[in-house]
Amino acid sequence: MQFGIFSVGDVTPDPTTGRTPTERERIKAMVAIALKAEEVGLDVFATGEHHNPPFVPSSPTTMLGYIAARTERLILSTATTLITTNDPVKIAEDYAMLQHLADGRVDLMMGRGNTGPVYPWFGQDIRQGINLALENYALLRRLWREDVVDWEGTFRTPLQGFTSTPRPLDGVPPFVWHGSIRSPEIAEQAAFYGDGFFHNNIFWPADHTRRMVELYRERYAHHGHGTPEQAIVGLGGHVFMRRNAQDAVREFRPYFDVAPVYGHGPSLEDFMDQTPLTVGSPQQVIEKTLAFRDYAGDYQRQLFLIDHAGLPLKTVLEQIDLLGEEVVPVLRKEFAVGRPAHVPDAPTHATRLAGTRW
């Protein structure tokens, strides 16, 4: 399994001090978080894509290219690449370029995002969201896999004899995850192509996640890519830790209460009871994360959100230390217990270049 962290890049006032970081400080903090992730032995850093306040990561390839130059092993991913409002030609070229610069340490998570106004900002209609996701991704796959593309669709001008440059590194396109928390059409899309399915289950109860993952697995097998157990699944999670659980709850509560994504709603206790959010000791994080396998099966990638809601960088780096030193080593060991031999590892550029189907 791969373990890592993802950031949505929100610029949120610290509710305990009232101070709001500058955009520059937040961008630099995301870089520091990625570097720390590699330092402690995590596998993946992923950034979201947003084009509106209070978020800063509007250009994932710029950020990931900078991080690539300062790391050696870390897999660089997006937590969302907006397949609906980005031009597939630009995605194909931008991420192939990044793939070369990062020596293959790149994959993408396709998604529609959670900001409705982004559609008209980029000249699209939110009512066509699913159709845009389907058509744009179909074109993107061809651009990466065919040297010369003739294409005509509904949402962009036709292409005649077009070659996107640079070509994917070693002729192997970046691996693609399709991210969704609510749309069965996206689970079907991932299954149809034999791509990965990432369910960012930080907002949802286990039963919902189970249904989405089971749908993807069943359709993956239906389309002839392997058994349901061989489908490529990733999950999100959200944690805040202190060695004493009561300290963690007391420290995190003011941040949870005003969080831009889920604040001003259920209580912290209710949210922990109903979703994968874990606020407590490292052992509690280990136990709850291991329980994900009960409803998602043996899966390939676990990403944690740890820098949301105005938490200061010092605190976030402490969280990464706890993940790297106390949590992830145990998760690696325990998730390996009883894992069937036919369940694949998470795809990497090296394994795909060596002949793995993806």
UniProtKB/TrEMBL annotation:
Gene3D superfamilies: Luciferase-like domain
Keyword Oxidoreductase attributed: yes
The keyword Oxidoreductase is assigned to this record: yes
A molecular-function term among this protein's GO annotations: oxidoreductase activity
Protein's name in the database: LLM class flavin-dependent oxidoreductase
Lineage of source species: Bacteria, Bacillati, Actinomycetota, Actinomycetes, Kitasatosporales
UniProt-listed Enzyme Commission number(s): 1.-.-.-
Pfam family, one: Bac_luciferase
